[in-house]
Amino acid sequence: MIVVEGLTKMYGSLKAVDALSFSVSRGEVIGLIGPNGAGKTSTLKCMVGIQAPTSGSVRIDGRDIVTDAVEAKRRLAFMPDEPQLFEYLTVREHLNLVARLYGVADYAGRVPRLLEELELSGKEGALPGELSRGMKQKLAIACGLLHDPPVLLFDEPLTGLDPLGIRRMKQTIVDRARAGAAVVVSSHLLHLVEEICTRILIIHRGTKIADGSLEELAARSDLSAAGSDLEQIFLRATGQAETDRAS
Amino acid sequence: MTHAFLYLTACSLKNRLRRRLRRLREPRYLAGLVVGLLYLYWFVVRNQMRAPGRGRPDLTWLTSFAPDIVVGGAVLLWVVAVLVWVWPFATRTWTFTAAEVQFFFAAPLTRRQLLNYKLLRSQVGLLFSVLIASLFTGAARAAVAGRWSLLLGGWLLFAVIFLHVLGANLTKSSFRAPASRVPWLAWASATLMIVVSGLLCGTYLVHASALVSRPLNEAIVGIVELGRVGAASFALWPFRMVLAPIFAATPSAFARALGPALVVLVFNYVWVLWSDANLEDAASAAEQRQAQGRSAAAPVVRPAPFSLAARGRVETAILWKNTILLGRYVSLRLVVRVLIPVVVMAVVFGLNSKGGSLAPLLLMLTVFATVVGPFMIRNDLRHDLQRLPVLKTWPISGRELLVGELLAPIFLLSAIVWFLLAVTLALSPAWKDGPIDAVGRAALLVSVGLLAPMLIAGQVIIQNAAVVLFPGWIATGSARARGIEAMGQNMLMFAGTLLALGVGILPASAVAGGLGYVLYLFLGWPGLLPAAMLLASILVVEAGLVVMWLGRVLERTDPAQIEIAE
Predict the structure, then answer these.
(1) Does a structural domain hold residue B502?
(2) Is residue B124 in a domain?
(3) Which ipTM value was assigned to this complex?
(4) Which domains does chain A have, with CATH numbers?
(5) Which residue range forms the structural domain that includes residue B341?
(6) Inter-chain touch B294–A88, beta carbons under 8 Å
(7) Does A104 contact B328 at a Cβ distance shorter than 8 Å?
(8) Contacts of B389 in chain A (CB under 8 A)
(9) Shortest CA distance to A47 belongs to which of A155, A197, A196?
(10) What span, in angstroms and rounded, lies between the C-alpha atoms of A3 and B252?
(11) Chain A residues in contact with B316 (beta carbon < 8 A)
């Protein structure tokens, strides 16, 4: 569903993403983790067409995000860590706009279910300025889920959510994957990644340093000393990468 | 505590200056500064450096009229004061920034200390305003005691106005409490204002019929004469005292005028300090706004202009969004601000044309809406560029995005222009003095109605193109850069837009103009209509080509490379 091949992103002379390749199948939830500045957000932005890759390619359901951008974008949704909303549109109007952009003919029937799922019922007429941080996040996610895309990309999806919201959000992600969506979750919350992701991709300084299920990572000879705890695996993998780099 | 406030004020000023100087490293600001300084030199400083009579007006004759100017100014000040008291909207006099709320409201400070801090901070802005005012009124310095008297007198005037606005707002907010809890000072100050206004209103109402029957200039003289005697003179005393130092002709006269003016200043200061109980309400309101993340310019929910179907062209969706944007930020305050100059102009035109037609004024407003409107109505990519990362995730092409963004300002301004033209056309038969007959005027107005949207579209496209191609040169979102360099930058952009528009329409205008001239010879003014249609058609094709090219540029635009204007 998602195929990333040799993705490289440069900002001037800074290489944020370096020849990154991976793929995500239907029903798979991949956790994209790495230290600050590892290139996670740049990778996501290239994957959704916000930024053009310097080289390499990203294909969404067989459509290239650069050469066939409109069709590729029609099949995905990106939920950024900082919800970007139009401060002058109400909750319902946001969904109305997204429905028109993605041509969701039956959106009137979908909206109540979605608002209920994301605990936004009763807030249809509210402006973003009247919503809490967590509710804004939920609205951004509702906009992303409205057209039921087969590819979902989340950047820190739990930011600002309350405990119940966190539980529901995790369930939403898992449910969408079970329904056949390919999901990428970028987060620093390793317990979240450990809990919901079927595969983990660790990147460091723009390069892939580990890729596989938790069991596969734990079984790797260079990481086996970390046991099966993702935090230990992450620290060891990134620390190892630093050591390799220094030597 | 005063030291802490002084330190903060000084640091803020210093860092603001440093930031302004640092941004001059960028060519756009440097070029803007050069243009801004050249403008100030050419139109302000150069005139003042000349000797009187050599291009610079000799205003020494003003000295003999200074007492009249003071009384006239006092009447104006009183009108301003009345407006402040009856103005239904909250002013920003006591607005606290996010940092001020976070640091000061949680700090062990009294309300009076907070108030003094706001007064202290206001002095920076007041002094700057006085400096600018004295620069622009420098030509009149020969009529007064000297530039320093303008500066000091000006500061006194601005300080009193600031204090009075603050005091009036605090007093108004106390009247929101139940009558039994309204403090005596609020009653006393409101009563004083009512008495002063009653005396002045009574004086002028008694002589209203006599004043109205006179020509405008004689009516003004009459207003001043009435203000110099009797009860009106007594009521205008504080207003006259505040203005007197500015218009003092000699240093000794200035010194004599300073004392009473300081008394008025101190009176207002004490009044504000004693009214500080209500600052808490204002502070909590500010805190509340802060907690809600809403600024004074927060949008207000109003019905959408039309319902948006789930299927259809995506450009319509963006038009829908941007029309909502405009409607939700338009407030009664904004409408009043726009309407006041229009009403004043209409009254002046009406008086000058002795009850004649308003058609010339409407045509002037049409030109204003066509030429300046595209710079003022910015609900397009100029507002949305900061959200480019979101826009780029939408499954639409760059051309569709651009067209959708362009539509709202073009439609709105075209509607305004057409409305003005329709009214002009309706009034046209009464516009008898012109050399063109009614049919000719109608043909002219229809031609203008056809071409105005093209000119509006051209400017909107150029502005949006500038945002895409040179994002740092145009302010995006609601941010506005300040300073001479920003003023020069805006002037450059204005000139650049008009130049680009001229280049764009010149070839087509030449062709259509030739056709129009030939048809005019045979058909008269109605012959201009086919030429206007030809010109409009050519401009539509040109605009289409530019939009297609610009759409492709937009698709390739990397949001990370866009530097948002400061």
Answers:
(1) yes
(2) yes
(3) 0.85
(4) 2-75+150-246 (3.40.50.300), 83-148 (no CATH)
(5) 314-561
(6) no
(7) no
(8) 45, 50, 80, 84
(9) A155
(10) 86
(11) 100
